[in-house]
User: Fold these one by one.
Assistant:
Number 1:
Amino acid sequence: MIFRVFAREELKKLFDAMASKNKIVGPVEIARDHNGKPLFAFNEVNSFNDIKLDYTTTKLSAKKYFLPYKEDLAAFRMDENDWQKKVDYNISEPFIFFGLHACDINALNKLDKVLMGSVYPMPYYAAKRKNMFIVGIDCTPQPYCFCRSMGADTALHGFDMFITDIGEKYFVEILSDTAFNFLKNIRTAEPIEADHIHYMKVASEKNKKFTAHVDTTDLTKILDMEFQSDVWKQWGEKCLACGSCSKACPTCYCYGVEETVDINLRGAKKTKKLYSCNLIDFAEVAGGHNFRPERHVRLKYRYYHKHRGFVEAYEESLCVGCGRCGEACLANITVPEVIASVRGEEN
Amino acid sequence: MDAGLVRTYLGVPLYRPKVAFFEFSSCEGCQLQLLNNESSLLDFLALVDVVNFREAMKEKADDYEIAFVEGSITRSDEAERLKDIRSKAKVLVALGSCACFGGVNQLKNRFSLDWVKKEVYGNSPVETEPVRPLGDVVRVDLKIFGCPVKKEEVEKIVTNIAVGKAVAHPKYPVCTECKANENICLFDLGEPCLGPITRGGCDSWCPNSRFGCWGCRGPAEDANVEQLKKIMKEYGFSEDTILDRLECFGGFSAFADTLRKSGEKNKGTSA
Ligand code: SF4
Ligand code: SF4
Ligand code: SF4
Ligand code: SF4
Ligand code: SF4
């Protein structure tokens, strides 16, 4: 691992060097909520002044850049006696994520396992993932963040460089040649002992700021034991079955595919749309039988996939503790509260 | 209105059903939706043989297989005419929220008919009945929701009918499409929205322009109306705000009735 430090004013130069030849996606402020708090989103940024590197979190994850909410998988042209299929992985150029937090980098690492590491990799995801350069940035835990409980508060891999604000300087961790070469555009130095001390201080202060926690001890077993627990019904009564949790989540990857024929009958499309296990017909099969017609059963399923099924398959949870699902949920259903209730604890 | 050659799909000539459009009490906005895209109108007319469409043509024929019916039923002669259409059509489609639920028209059902007549027609009263959706009078085979209906959706349905694909409505609520459109949630902006309980399919038409949903498509399947009422209260919206929205298009009339009655009871006890 290579570490460097650089002065604060160098950051803009680094951004400009990257932006001169590349598309940059980063956190920007999109509005204020009714309490005057800023709302953030990942969008394309053209100027360093527009990027908000001290953002709390974005309402929606950066998913639209690697798992778009809606994506054409194939287009068809049809004429009298023939037809042609055109497949496009829907990425026209490489791009740079400037300012992903550790949780979101870990989310990509988890998705990689499912969508690239399995027997049938998903080319639409892989094409985007292979064309992305990631600059990570440190963060301040918010009241809803429990990434530390999920072991996702630091990113060990899956990025090109990771920047931490240590006061007068930025501390940067370099994981790729490309990152190393980008840094040649600005003045950097070898960190000295004082920089290490500042880094460790920042890290330990960050740890103290976590207020939300999830106890994952023996969680897979406890979920198995509590499969019939009444708490699921209580949460199910609150759930709106709207799927906003999955839409906001950086790791939910479920989708549906729809085929549509153009009204002139000369074209057709196969379109993928992200779906959610909370939606009423998620487990409906041909013939109309629904394996999970009840809200609480579907809500439970979401927790079982994240915290049990995935753990058994990959030895880690499919949740990075970013807290977005709870923030998106109008019914205030949050992971720390649901898990605590299953464990029979007051949260 | 013969648009010439019968279309083929993958080399197979398609059956071109005879289609008629009718309207009852409504603004005729749904039919207008179908006419207002010239680029696809001819394609639409190539798929179906329109024999009756007052808004678009002079000729009329009684020989049709699919009847698209807009509007709600507010007079006894309308009910008779609808029954006649039903007897001639193989498939009857309720087009738009008036036809599906009574629509905005059904708001009058909250008042006494005498009062309504006086208020609307003054001293020259006409016959009027409580507003009914088509399904209360005849059997409806397919409902196309929306006030107005979404042109793209109707075209998709007609295309699917023509090529023999199943016609299915989304069962999930508007929120599902709203999140996919990356909208800022109206609740975050301090505005009410019925998106969490209203059937999707409109591609979150209103929230896309930062207007809260009014529920024009009626309830999503498994709509949790009770919970949304609680949430609206937590966000500080009055019961009247909730009721106004729930009763606007008629899709939630059962829920609105309960809420109105409990509201009146509460007012009674507090007065
Ligand atoms: S389940 Fe919730 S907390 Fe976990 S990764 Fe998804 S959005 Fe974040
Ligand atoms: S099953 Fe549910 S929780 Fe799991 S990835 Fe799919 S939508 Fe997300
Ligand atoms: S848990 Fe919340 S966000 Fe998820 S489907 Fe239920 S109500 Fe919607
Ligand atoms: S704006 Fe309305 S439809 Fe959109 S997410 Fe919020 S509640 Fe749902
Ligand atoms: S957002 Fe609601 S009111 Fe607006 S078109 Fe859609 S269903 Fe109708």
Number 2:
Amino acid sequence: MKFAPLLLLATVALLIALPWLVSGSMLNAAVQMLIAALFAMAFGLLCGQAGMLSFGHAAYFGVGAFAAVHAMNAFGGAGLLPTPLLPLVGGATGLISGLVAGYFSTKRTGVYFAMITLALAELLHALASHLKAVFGGEAGVSSFRMPAWGIGFGSLTDVYFLTLVWTLLCIGLLYLFSKTPLGRITLGLRENAHRLRFLGYNTHALGTLIFAISAMFAGIAGALQSMNIEAANYVVLESHISTAVVLNSFIGGVRVFLGPAIGGAVMTFFGYVTSDLTRVWLLYQGIIFVLVMMFLPRGLVGELVERLRHRSGQGVARSLGATLLRLLCLAVAAAGAVFLIEFLQRFLSSEYRAGVSEGNWPAISLFSYDWAPLSVLPWAVGLGLFGLGIALVVTVNRRVADRQEAQA
Amino acid sequence: MSDPILSLQHVHKSFGPAHIIRDANLDVLPGERHAVIGPNGAGKSTLFHLCSGQFAPSKGHILLNGREIGGLKPAEVNRRGLARSFQITNIFPGVSVFENLRLAVMRKHNLQFVFWRSAARLRQVNEEVDDLLGKIRLTDRAQTLASQLSYSEQRSLEIGMTLASDPQVILLDEPMAGMSHEETDYTAGLIREITEGRTLLIVEHDMSVVFSLAHRISVLVYGEIIATGTPEDIRGNARVKEAYLGEEAA
Ligand SMILES: Nc1ncnc2c1ncn2[C@@H]1O[C@H](COP(=O)(O)OP(=O)(O)O)[C@@H](O)[C@H]1O
Ligand SMILES: [Mg+2]
């Protein structure tokens, strides 16, 4: 079990070396990934550990983002608040707004809690478009990162390291938090708040505090975001930001410690890669979420941890083989699905529609071939690959099950 | 006679039109083991819910050490020194047995909002948890998820969590339900041991346990306490025989 610290060390080393390993645009994506990871970890504390599903975490992310921009303008990156410490402002405003919002929303649980968080976030979003002095209206508020502590903060590399240090620091703090008495009680809150009350705990105060701590880290993530782009716009308060953090965290695995961070980073990377390749990348993101929830309900990391925990000594190699085989078959099915989706997207697009004249259906070019939409071929390729992949997975699963039965 | 430590005075509880507790009067004396018996649906659990803050009484007073606790919140009642177990197992299923007990013990040490210390290094707390684990015979299961315990092990954990806060007054609602003979005997011994110097109010269906454990017994029928007395008194009470014990024997 000395494996985990080694892996962690290697990851950190890789992250430190990253600016010398990847292109500028990739490094920019890495900054986004770190921010998404931290934001998801903040959400994970509330949802995964305390069991409170917030649909309005964009509010605290956004509050932190605006606070940091205003602080950047007010202090000019010097004096009491030099540039590297600006995320503290995001954290403080996140904490305070989290205390207020948490006080009200944690009076309820479950669906009602979720609805209150959603309503509060929408309220802030609606207000933001009117409060031009604070939120800058359509244009938003912009600023400049100033040099401090002998660092320029003009280059992407500087921003990357600023983001990296803060993200690692916060994740480290969240880890330590999970080991403290309050961190343990957080799990009790998720598992059975009713019983906690009968043990003498003030569950409303506890819930409010956890909510505020989660909002504080969300605020730090927001501050890092606005420092990165040197601006904040009330778009950061929109509900799709709240949704994204929910989806990312669940894809990674909201109950395992690093699950949300991995989910946030992976899905941000996925968006970075696919948004250039396809117009329907949000559709793919949605499909991934549905598939993960259906087949890996613990999330990617959660499932991995579970597998590792229940591995049987000799079966590792064999189950690894079966898993690789499954992944291969799934890749075939995915290729078919992607083909179909892309083909349909082009077929149904308004540009294509405009090009269709009576009885004349122009060919659709996809993956460097031109396909006649009325012929069987493209549909056969897509459906065929998809069907083949699924059939193969089913066969592999059956074989594995048979073998396990034979062993038992 | 010393003043009662827990006193119910003309307590009523109704849910809408249903009068579940009707004018219940009960004095529990300091240091005694007091059992409440009665047929199913008589309102025994409801009585416990009223004493522990789950429900507020519709009418009447509930006094703990002479101070009103009727209508207080569960956490407040607990802090005044009354802890309870539940008839329907009420634990933290997704965390380990050790963690379940630690949650119960930490509160006693006022570790509620503490985020600057490591829980693993709370020596006193962890020792107390180990001690409790031994008492409820779950030491081997310390790292098991509570949800994976057998039913009777969960019942033991339920009792352990109730004891953990070191209460003055303990309310146990059918603690032995679902336990084997051996487990019941052991648990009866454990309850006897841990309630030394405390006050116990217990609901239990196993009459041999009730009659051997309790100093005094109260009989609850249709939300009314129809008799209170020593085991001998209760055994000889005609009304009780008619309403409850006779029914059991028949
Ligand atoms: N929350 C409630 N709302 C309505 N009726 C209830 C409620 N709780 C208990 N009752 C009713 O009160 C009666 C007594 O229940 P309970 O106290 O659980 O009995 P006992 O523990 O003696 O078996 C039952 O008829 C039950 O249906
Ligand atoms: Mg009952």
Number 3:
Amino acid sequence: MNLIKPDFTYCSDIKLIKRIEGSSRILEEFPDYLVDESRLSGNSVETIFFPETTSDVSAIMRDMHKRGLRGCVSGARTGVVGGAVAMNVDCVISLSGMNEILGFDNKSICAQCGVTLDELDKHISDNIPGMFYPVDPTETTSSIGGNVASNASGARTYYYGPTRNWVNAITVVLADGSVLDLKRGDVVADGRRFRIELPGQPETTFEFPNHKYPKVKNTAGFILAENMDAIDLFVGSEGILGIITKVDLRLIKKPSNRLYTVIWAESEKQSVDLVKAIRSSHILNMLAIEYFSPEAIAVLKQRRMYEGSSSTVAKIPYDAIAAIFIDCVYKDDSELSDISAELEIILHAQKRSLDNTWSGMNDSDLKRMKQLRHALPETINMIITERKKDNPNIHKLSTDFAVPDGMLETMLETYHKKLDKSGIEYVIFGHIGDNHLHVNMLPKTEKELLLAHELYVELAKDAVRLGGTIAAEHGIGRFKRHLMPIQYPPEMLDAMLELKNIFDPAGLLNPGVMLPD
Amino acid sequence: MKIVCLVKEVPDSEAKITVENGKIKETGVKFIVNPYDEYGIEEALKIKEAGGEHQVFILTFGTERAKKVMESAMALGADEGFLVADGSAPDCDSHTTAKVLAAALNKIGFDMIFCGKQAIDDDSSQVGVRVAEMLSLGHASVVNKFELTDGKVKVERQIQGGQEVIEMPVPCVITCQKGLNDPRYPSLKNIMAVKKKPRTVFTLDDIGLSADDVGVNGSFVEVTKFEPPLEKAPGRVIEGEPEDTAKELIRSLREEAKVI
Ligand SMILES: Cc1cc2nc3c(=O)[nH]c(=O)nc-3n(C[C@H](O)[C@H](O)[C@H](O)COP(=O)(O)OP(=O)(O)OC[C@H]3O[C@@H](n4cnc5c(N)ncnc54)[C@H](O)[C@@H]3O)c2cc1C
């Protein structure tokens, strides 16, 4: 069946829904609800709603729809692209109070959208032994609704894919307050066509063009594919089609034996060669492959030198110039021996040995290694904070591009060539297994800041030219709308806009997010 | 020199500890090398790497399960591992634990002994010093600087208002504090090499002790029960006019929380 048909179900009394009112009071006492981690500044609003159920959200949307009010859909506000910033809106719908686990069995869990990843993990480990939710966006205080709305991914996406792959079912409240329950497999496009029937409206057809999406993880705009599931219209929709209130997620058996290893490399080229060898090995079962560039290692070494042995940054071997981190699954001791032998061969081919590794099998080992990874953005932010003292306009620019297998080296070469020429300080790190590296540009002056913005667009074009994406995991939000035409031809952008107009013709939900004007 | 590092098996600092019927529930908990013991192992390895005829031994007292932790400790680069395995280990107090370790040390021989300043599970901070006393050795605890020259040890420890410097001959016992060094991470090579190194498991009998010496029988202290820390009570919002809320706040801090 290809008919998407929401209903008006039970809706709460709007007067009874928790809220904070008054734009000046909100600005003074609750400014945090107006921004997300992008630190983009928005405007204040008349009302912040705190719904607790799907019926509450339905009541809010019905009321807003009647009055033509625009709203900002706000999860845990950890987004970095400005999706949950109150900008050109009349109210904020904060989903932070919708944090109940609604049910679970031994292979799935159903939660309200405001449940955080930390809470979800805790609930699973307390109640569903041996199982886990495998997607691991670094920010564990993010909400599961936000994760679904932005199709979040993490290091382990290399093996398990993005959030999308784990969503069994969702409940969405649309702009008119109607409610849509979608279970994977129930509503599927007929080729490239959905029929949509909103309450009190004639049926419409949404037909989309054939488009070849990049073969990489991708959160830029809607992913419209032949015979797609209607759920996937909403996964990654960044709150512009509806408010996801309830999510049913698939769980998987937690791999019990894990080997975590940092491999210290002598150069970037050696790291890339190691990654290629690791990826093509049939013996290694990798959940994640992460990268620290020479610039990243230098930043960490510097911090360590500055802070001494009390630093949270471990002492990095002096001959280490770059590093990769791998998270590997094994069944038993004999498989562990095989893995070690395989890594020895791979390292030997690069004139390195197993001596150039740090390894461990426990959670505390993982934590120590993760500390290195966490210390990196932390240190970068410290550097930027210092620069802001001289010039408050200064901020870092972080890319989120990914390119297909085979284009990794070309992309890295491009990064270095253009960034070195610009003179802007930069650090590269991230999900190298997925050819998805974050370039952090750290401008020192206003002039460099301007240059960094220009360079950002140029690098986005390069990524797309190499068959990649402008937004692999963070989404588009308000920050990257101007980049959408780089990745999509006009007919695709038109189709995305048409989809938005069918579900939210008045533009009440997250105006200014994802789609270019 | 035979350098012996005492290593205790403790729950992973990342583990979630639950208490059931007054006992710690161990299912699902992973066990690790006591982090403070790693400073001792590092110091021992540094002595060895500086040159000379040295061997680094790991000595652990625990149940059979502790073999894994002994091996993890060996993976840092030690030459040989010893485990005194006995089911009574969890019921042993510091005195009994030290008795077992001292007996094992006598069996394997030693020229220098390192251990952590305390174990992160029971925080007793006594075992190293008790071992030294039982073996009539000099000791220094909570050490953050160590030097070995011509068979003489010079250590420093932080005390109120400054550093204390102690010199003594080897053999002696040093309990190690954070800051002493940077414990290394095991390399995959050393992890895999452990299986090829000598690992000995002693019974009590092997070290000349019997069931009467250990566990509840040999201990002065008996742990009667464990209790989880109190759950944090939810916060309370006091509403009303400032004069009333201030009064109510003072009253509840004084009468309910009893903090003023
Ligand atoms: C330090 C740090 C590290 C990060 N690492 C990663 C990472 O590894 N991978 C990754 O993918 N992201 C990462 N992020 C970005 C962010 O955590 C994710 O995008 C996350 O999914 C956002 O969830 P949230 O609940 O905070 O959503 P918000 O920031 O509140 O919102 C994000 C977007 O989703 C919409 N939205 C939120 N909830 C709903 C809902 N219930 N229904 C409909 N729309 C909704 C909002 O309107 C907005 O457009 C990181 C952020 C930080 C600060």
